[in-house]
């Protein structure tokens, strides 16, 4: 408290009440000043203390005119706990301490903003700000890290800007440029001079329009330019300060609760700090913020820089050097100091708020009602809770061209839980280009798909996850006349394939792109360097000119050469028009070799090379055709996925997972049936017969035999009735089937196909019912004797029929 003491001495130096001011701060001064200085202080009189108390009571603390108020429409205060509506004696004491602290602060620092100490809560009861914080451990791992926790809080908050009286709204009227129309006279009636004058006039009009357009653009730029802020430095905002040290935090940083973004303490947007508080104490910043927050030292244990309100054991202590610590090494002084502090410390009361309880549904909903819209300059951000939209849309960012947000430039949509692994969709309204981004796991291993139309043979670019494909395809670019593919990691070292298509041959019958493929004119393939082959034998590029029946080869260039070898083959048919076999001639192979070799000049080598290239050409044409079919399959699959937009549901999500729900209901139904079955087995089979006898009377031997016979006779009759019932149903179904078959024989000629289908369906169902009844009847006949014997054995062992055991003993 040295800073406050110095300010008091400067302000009260011309007055005679210096002793009274020093008496008010004597309790804290004794903590910070050396022991020798404290011994020299004089004792204050009661009159001086009364004058000091009267002076402090006259201090008026400025209070903001606009206080946040809660109405009954926002919060139902009748359901709130008692701690929200009243204050405990310890809280009242804390409010008195805070009020005294605020009066002293306003007296010593009249130019600073009033302290935010005890605002009104929902029930309009003053509460100290530190007691509004209650640390709570939540069961969600996402809230353990500051970034995800800050994002979660920002989604629940909605910023409503306050009206600014210094910036009145002015609507400027837009001027409509006059449009001039001229009628060109007939050529015969217009002179050249008039035409020249008309051209000059049109040029002046265009120049004027350009000038007006340029002025309009300058006006818009001036409107968009940020004007000087009249309230710069006067606004007070609240944010979160995270101090370094605990949980491996390397440095101090700020968190904006409205956006969830973090900022460095050196950021120029933070002009200064008035006060800090947590759930244990309250601190005032006594440092100069002339350089924003860049030079602030966040050592809360330093009372010179941070003035604390409560003197308790939880206060951060300043690290003292040996020289500073030498003045309080006396054992007696330290012991007396501890005795003096016993009555001066004041612990923070327990928080009056309830623990934060977030249900899994609320945690997943995030935003209020599951949706939030944030309006920016020329942009709008929309957020939704997962599974709120049937297509999995969770976020959409729309960018506009104008400030009125009417002309859309681009749209970005983020998705979650999509079965097709769609993660982001980017739509450019200017070029009408759509780009889909996928996560790993798509059936076609898609990564990026850029297109303007889903129709085949249109401009598109498809990128793949090459590790998920066996052919190593990375990207495929397609236009109306070309298709380019890029590969990586193939065993044949293929890296590039480019196919040129010609105009499709028109057919009279309706044909699709699959049945009538585009004719291939040219195929260009490029290969990576194969270190296992010499450079003059390793093909770097080969071109199949199908229309010209030529094949061009270019080999890799050696490191010590500046040019590469080339070879061109004239591909001819193997037989001529008369059926004679064509022999390989030297003019069918034109080659340029950097270092000629003898075996390459032989016709046999050239013939084998040409035959190998023919096979490769056929394979390349087939692969291009398969690529076209794959594109059609991808487009068809994407249309089905966009139409269905099925969402994936975790097996642990029992509320949304229908399969898990059906399985759980089936298990519950089986358990219920098992319970009913057990209840049936536990039924008292002697209860109807024992009801005929007087209650509590012991059975005689004759009565026990009679009860046994009656019970067995009744059970036997029920078995017979059940068999007769099954037999009657079996006979009824058989007779109805015979009647239906007789009707079919009589009307077989006049029956329609629909009637025959109905007859066959009926016969199938009737035969199924007859077969089931027959199986039940046979099973009943097998189990009836066993059930009868089981009941007879139970009757012999029943303790209530103990006389039966004496008979057969």
Automatic annotation (TrEMBL):
Signal peptide (UniProt feature, chain positions): none
Stretches that traverse the bilayer: none
Name of the protein described by the UniProt record: Dynein regulatory complex subunit 7
Annotated CEP76/DRC7 peptidase-like domain residues: 236-309
Region (Disordered): 1-21, 321-345
Gene source species: Rhinopithecus bieti
Record field: compositional bias (Basic and acidic residues): 336-345
Keyword Cytoplasm applies: yes
Pfam families tied to this protein: CEPT76_peptidase, DRC7_C, MORN_DRC7
Bias (Acidic residues) ranges: 321-335
Coiled-coil stretches noted in the UniProt entry, renumbered to this chain: 199-227
Keywords associated with the record: Coiled coil, Cytoplasm, Cytoskeleton
Cellular component GO terms held in the UniProt record: cytoskeleton; motile cilium
InterPro entries, per the entry: CEPT76/DRC7_peptidase-like_dom, DRC7/lobo, DRC7_C, MORN_DRC7
Subcellular location: Cytoplasm, Cytoskeleton
UniProt gene name: DRC7
GO annotation (BP), single: flagellated sperm motility
Principal place of residence: cytoplasm
Lineage: Eukaryota, Metazoa, Chordata, Craniata, Vertebrata
Chain ranges of the Dynein regulatory complex subunit 7 MORN domain: 368-650
Superkingdom of origin organism: Eukaryota
Domain Dynein regulatory complex subunit 7 C-terminal: 697-804
């Amino acid at each position: 408290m040295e800073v406050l003491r110095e300010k008091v001495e400067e302000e009260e130096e011309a007055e005679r009440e210096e002793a009274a001011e020093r008496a008010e701060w004597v309790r804290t001064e004794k903590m910070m000043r050396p022991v020798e200085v404290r011994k020299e202080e004089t004792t204050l009189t009661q009159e001086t203390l009364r004058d000091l108390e009267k002076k402090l009571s006259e201090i008026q603390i400025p209070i903001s005119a606009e206080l946040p108020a809660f109405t009954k429409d926002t919060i139902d205060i009748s359901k709130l706990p008692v701690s929200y509506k009243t204050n405990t004696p310890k809280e009242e004491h804390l409010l008195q301490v805070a009020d005294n602290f605020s009066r002293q602060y306003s007296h010593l620092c009249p130019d600073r903003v009033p302290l935010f100490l005890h605002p009104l809560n929902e029930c309009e009861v003053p509460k100290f700000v530190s007691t509004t914080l209650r640390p709570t451990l939540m069961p969600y791992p996402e809230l353990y890290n500051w970034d995800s926790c800050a994002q979660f809080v920002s989604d629940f908050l909605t910023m409503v800007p306050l009206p600014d009286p210094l910036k009145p709204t002015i609507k400027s009227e837009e001027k409509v440029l006059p449009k001039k129309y001229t009628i060109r006279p007939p050529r015969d009636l217009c002179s050249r001079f008039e035409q020249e004058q008309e051209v000059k006039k049109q040029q002046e009009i265009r120049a004027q329009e350009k000038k007006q357009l340029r002025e309009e653009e300058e006006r818009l730029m001036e409107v968009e330019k940020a004007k000087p802020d009249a309230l710069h430095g006067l606004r007070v905002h609240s944010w979160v300060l995270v101090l370094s040290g605990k949980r491996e935090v390397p440095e101090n940083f700020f968190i904006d609760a409205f956006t969830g973004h973090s900022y460095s303490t050196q950021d120029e947007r933070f002009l200064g700090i008035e006060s800090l508080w947590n759930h244990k104490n309250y601190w005032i910043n006594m440092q100069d913020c002339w350089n924003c927050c860049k030079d602030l030292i966040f050592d809360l244990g330093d009372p010179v820089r941070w003035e604390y309100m409560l003197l308790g054991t939880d206060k951060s202590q300043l690290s003292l050097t040996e020289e500073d610590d030498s003045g309080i090494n006396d054992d007696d002084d330290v012991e007396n100091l501890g005795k003096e502090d016993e009555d001066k410390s004041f612990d923070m009361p327990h928080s009056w708020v309830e623990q934060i309880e977030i249900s899994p549904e609320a945690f997943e909903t995030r935003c209020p009602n599951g949706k939030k819209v944030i309006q920016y300059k020329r942009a709008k951000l929309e957020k939704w809770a997962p599974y709120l939209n049937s297509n999995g849309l969770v976020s959409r960012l729309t960018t506009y061209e104008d400030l009125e947000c009417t002309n859309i430039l681009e749209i970005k949509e983020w998705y979650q839980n999509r079965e097709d692994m769609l993660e982001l969709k980017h739509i450019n309204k200017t070029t009408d280009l759509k780009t889909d981004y996928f996560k790993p796991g798509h059936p076609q291993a898609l990564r990026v798909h850029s297109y303007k139309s889903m129709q085949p043979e249109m401009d598109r670019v498809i990128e793949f996850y090459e590790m998920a494909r066996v052919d190593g395809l990375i990207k495929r670019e397609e236009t109306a006349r070309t298709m380019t593919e890029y590969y990586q990691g193939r065993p044949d070292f293929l890296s590039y394939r480019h196919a040129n298509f010609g105009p499709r041959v028109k057919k009279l019958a309706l044909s699709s792109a699959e049945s009538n493929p585009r004719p291939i004119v040219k195929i260009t393939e490029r290969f990576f360097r194969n270190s296992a082959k010499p450079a003059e034998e390793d093909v770097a590029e080969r071109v199949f000119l199908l229309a010209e029946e030529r094949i061009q080869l270019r080999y890799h260039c050696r490191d010590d050469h500046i040019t590469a070898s080339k070879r061109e083959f004239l591909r001819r048919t193997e037989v001529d028009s008369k059926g004679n076999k064509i022999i390989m001639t030297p003019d069918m192979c034109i080659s340029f070799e950097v270092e000629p070799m003898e075996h390459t000049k032989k016709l046999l080598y050239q013939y084998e090379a040409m035959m190998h290239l023919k096979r490769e050409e056929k394979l390349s044409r087939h692969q291009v055709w398969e690529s076209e079919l794959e594109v059609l399959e991808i487009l068809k699959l994407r249309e089905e996925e966009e139409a269905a937009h099925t969402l994936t549901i975790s097996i642990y999500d029992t509320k949304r997972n229908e399969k898990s729900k059906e399985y759980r209901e089936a298990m519950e139904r089986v358990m219920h049936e098992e319970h009913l079955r057990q209840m049936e087995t536990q039924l008292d089979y002697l209860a109807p017969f024992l009801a005929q006898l007087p209650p509590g009377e012991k059975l005689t031997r004759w009565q026990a035999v009679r009860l046994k016979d009656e019970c067995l006779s009744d059970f036997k009759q029920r078995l017979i009735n059940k068999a007769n019932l099954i037999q009657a149903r079996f006979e009824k179904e058989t007779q109805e089937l015979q009647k239906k078959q007789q009707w079919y024989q009589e009307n077989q000629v006049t029956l329609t196909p629909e009637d025959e289908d109905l007859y066959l369906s009926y016969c199938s169902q009737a035969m199924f019912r007859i077969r089931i009844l027959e199986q039940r009847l046979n099973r009943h006949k097998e189990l009836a004797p066993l059930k009868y014997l089981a009941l007879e054995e139970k009757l012999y062992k029943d303790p209530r029929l103990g006389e039966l055991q004496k008979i057969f003993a």
